[in-house]
Amino acid sequence: MRKLRALWIRFTGLLRPRRTDDEFSQELDSHIGMHVDEALRSGLSPDEARRRALIQLGGVEQVRQAQRERTSLPWIENLVRDLRYAVRRLAKHPAVTAIAILSIGLGIGANATIFSMVNRFVLRPAPMGNPTTLLALHTTHDGDRCCNSFSWPLYTDVRDQARSFAGVAAYYELIPASIGGPGEPERVWGQGVTANFFDVTELHMVLGRGFTPSEESAPSVVLGENLWRRRFDSDPALVGKSVHISGRNFTVVGIAPPSFHGADQILYTEFWVPIGNIGTLVPTVPDQKSRQFHFVDVLARLAPGVSPTRASVELKGIARRLASAYPDTDKGSTIVFEQAGSLPSNVRGPVILFFTALTVVVLLVLAIAGANVANLLFAQAALRQRDMAIRLAMGATRARLRRQMLMESVLLGLGGGATGVLLSLWSTNILSAMRLPAPVPIDVRIDEDWRVLAFAFALSVVSGVVLGVAPAWAASHPRLANSLKGEDALARPGRPLSLRNILIVVQIAMSVVLLSLTGLFLRSLGSAATIDIGFRPQGLLKMSVDPRVHGYTAERTAQFFGQIRQRVAALPGVDAVACTDVALLSDGNRSDAFSVAANPGSGPAPVDADLYMVTPGFFDVMGIPRLSGSDFGDEKSAAINTAVVSQSFAERVLGQKNPLGQRITGGGTTYEIIGVVGNVKSRSLGEDIRPVLYRSLNQSIAADPSLMGYTLLVHTSRNPASLEQSVRREIHVLDPAMAIYGEETMEEHVRTAYFLPRLAATLFGVFGFIGLLLAAVGLYGVMSYAVSRRTREIGIRMALGARPGLVERLVVRQGMVLAIIAMVIGWPAAWMLSRLASSFLYGIQPHDSLTFTIVPLFLAGVALVACWLPARRAASIDPVQALRTE
């Protein structure tokens, strides 16, 4: 209690210093007066009596200082005093302060931007209750890569047998649908979930509830908050009412929170229906009794007190029992898990590698910026040598001086951090606007949460401390005799490499690495732009519809597309119209393994090929050259299945045989080849040419309806975007309730296919430009400082007859030596680190000779300019004025 009372007295004294001092002054005056009265009574004069009273007290100021230390917190007072001093010092040099804050801000902004991406796609847990105990379960088979979905019987086995879990739920990943409501029908995507899904995920609804056990097959729906707000104007009375989803009535039982779009954080789904009722929304639902069809994903909540290790052991035991009981389907399979919401295993490796490369780059940017700021602080420390020497001579401690300078650098770091967060907010908004070329809804929005802010704050403080330590130490250890005379102790003659020069060498070396990586990605983007995609995107409008979700039969769907093609073809300016299931370069489509029908088991190994359903005229509309044979005609569903194949397909499946008339088998269907067309980029720009088989839409639509809907392609010699409203009207004339989605020109669609090379080139280009600018400014600053410190020497040289050209060469040579040393160090490092980029380059190798030749030459040119400007100023020095400089 006594210690707490003393601490309270100190704290109140800190908050009310003036009142405390006034009270103590009154008490001190009273005490002195008592001693004076006592001395007067002993016969002393008033002056002598007061003098003896003060001697007996030990000095008024000393007593007051001792009292302040007893009744306050001196270290906080000193800290506040140092803070005020640091603010005054920084405000006294606004230009230097602004440059330092901007430099640090650029570095921290780059790091915060990349950390926001890492946080969004790697670190952030799924937006569900207690995500650390929520696991995503997968199956994997011996010799296969992870991970696969569950069959329904396997899910029920795990749900019923596992004791390590408090609950096990399953969901069907994607359900395309059309939702009604106010306005035009809209294409949305949802999921089918078990009735206990929202209980296992511990998701709290905005309104209503999740599903009850009795609703496993009921026509009930939970809507996402964004869909509820967008389509139904946030109507709180919607719960309990019916909404139209794909032409069927579903009763709304709850509204999910806005942050929740499914367990997979990449997909963007907006409604959830009981999994027992997905047969009304999905064209072909696998047999739930079969162990062969793996179509559901599984989530499990660890039971209280159960460790992941124990759960893993139990799952392996269950897998062994099931393999013994069902050897035909489950032998060689095991069950693994990861934290729910993690990146899918098939993209995790490339994404983490890409983020690793970006992290290296932004750390280089921060290091270059830090070297710039450290050089500024060294310059400031050099200018303050005389001030520091005087303060040390008057009794100041070196620790106090270091603390004051560190306070200045930490304030610069915090200012840079605030600037960096603002830059990061701006850049993440731009990145969030980018679209992926995928036929399914992908959520790539990047936002900044408390983790990003904490990261930026920590990086700001660390940067401020690290950048300020060396200048603070150097400034607090001046050579008193030299400093009192105004000499620069940090740049003494006879030292070929000062601390400032070393920092410049490091800066330029890192810039070599950064610019080399930037050059590789810019060259990659240029190479990607020259890739032959195999079709003509100019003059094409694409627009998608999905008649199936509006209750159309296969026959009626075929009739609908026939009618819409006729109506749109009659529009002014339309040259041709065709339909397909999925547009080329949509990053994925249906594929099957194909072999020659005559010897499917004895011939060469089957070849995987992508499948597209198309209508007659598709190849002419797309500008895909027809090499031989004919196009599709008016095939009837009862006729033999016909196919047009790409040149790559013909070569890899049939070899040297004439493909026309050959029959091939794949996916349980036999096709007769009627034509061969040119190769195209099917899924992505960076892929090797894939074999492609085109089949008749009219023949295939009944047996294999497209889950992604169908795309109408319109060719015109005019601006294709100008036809959008006309085509929409024709579709709605045939069916006013038809949801239309994916409207864009084919050129816009192809541009989205350049997402990865454009993203990489943009990020690396911006960071490379920032690094180059900082390095050039840093070199210019060092050379300007060197010229200013050597003004008297240069004046003497010129007074003795040195020509201006000689002085220019002297200064330029000094700077270029530093640049050459840096390039010798940085070039091999860039050569080795370029392998990080190999997986993301298009058409060039990581050790691209052109890049590694141009970058050093370009950087040498920038360094030459940065050195020449101060050199020209040095050559124009007036010797008379220089000799007067001290």
Automatic annotation (TrEMBL):
Q: Which UniProt keywords apply?
A: Cell membrane, Membrane, Transmembrane, Transmembrane helix
Q: How does it sit in the membrane?
A: Multi-pass membrane protein
- Its GO CC terms? plasma membrane
InterPro entries in the record: ABC3_permease_C, ADOP, MacB_PCD, Macrolide_Exporter_MacB, Perm_prefix_1
One Pfam family for this entry, by name?
MacB_PCD
Q: Name one GO molecular function term.
A: transmembrane transporter activity
* Stretches assigned to the ABC3 transporter permease C-terminal domain: 360-477, 766-879
Q: In which domain of life is the source organism classified?
A: Bacteria
- Ranges where the MacB-like periplasmic core domain occurs: 97-316, 508-726
Q: Which residues cross the membrane?
A: 95-118, 352-378, 410-432, 452-475, 502-522, 759-782, 810-830, 850-869
Q: Where in the cell is it found?
A: Cell membrane
The family classification in the record reads: Belongs to the ABC-4 integral membrane protein family.
Task: Output this protein's name.
Answer: ABC transporter permease
Species of the source: Telmatobacter sp. DSM 110680
Q: What is the lineage of its organism?
A: Bacteria, Pseudomonadati, Acidobacteriota, Terriglobia, Terriglobales
